[in-house]
């Protein structure tokens, strides 16, 4: 998982799960965790 801190204050997260790249932006670590759980549960793309 790679994190990039963007100028607008958001954190861009890129991760590779089973050779599929997921990229999303979040405001904080809590939001990152929530989105990771959603991806693991198959509810987010």
Polypeptide structure, described:
It is a single chain. The protein is an alpha+beta fold and 45 residues long. The protein has one domain (2-40). 27% of the residues lie in helices and 40% in strands. It has 1 helix and 3 strands. It has one helix spanning 29-40, and strands at residues 2-5, 11-17, 20-26. The radius of gyration is 10 Å and the shape is flat. The model has no long low-confidence stretch (mean pLDDT 90).
Short description:
Helix content is 27%, strand content 40%. It has 45 residues and is of the alpha+beta class.
Brief descriptors of the model:
45 residues; 27% helix; 3-stranded antiparallel sheet; alpha+beta; flat
Please specify the SSE layout and strand pairing.
Blueprint: E1 2-5, E2 11-17, E3 20-26, H1 29-40
Antiparallel strand pairs: 1-2, 2-3
**Average pLDDT level:** 90
Q: How many distinct helices?
A: 1
Q: Classify the oligomer.
A: single chain
Alpha-carbon distance between the termini? Answer: 16 Å
What value does the Rg take, in angstroms? Answer: 10 Å
Main beta sheet, described? Answer: 3 strands, antiparallel
């Amino acid at each position: 998982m790679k994190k990039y801190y963007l100028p607008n204050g958001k954190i861009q997260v890129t991760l590779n799960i089973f050779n599929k790249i997921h990229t999303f932006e979040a405001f904080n670590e809590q939001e990152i965790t929530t989105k990771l759980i959603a991806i693991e549960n198959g509810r987010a793309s």
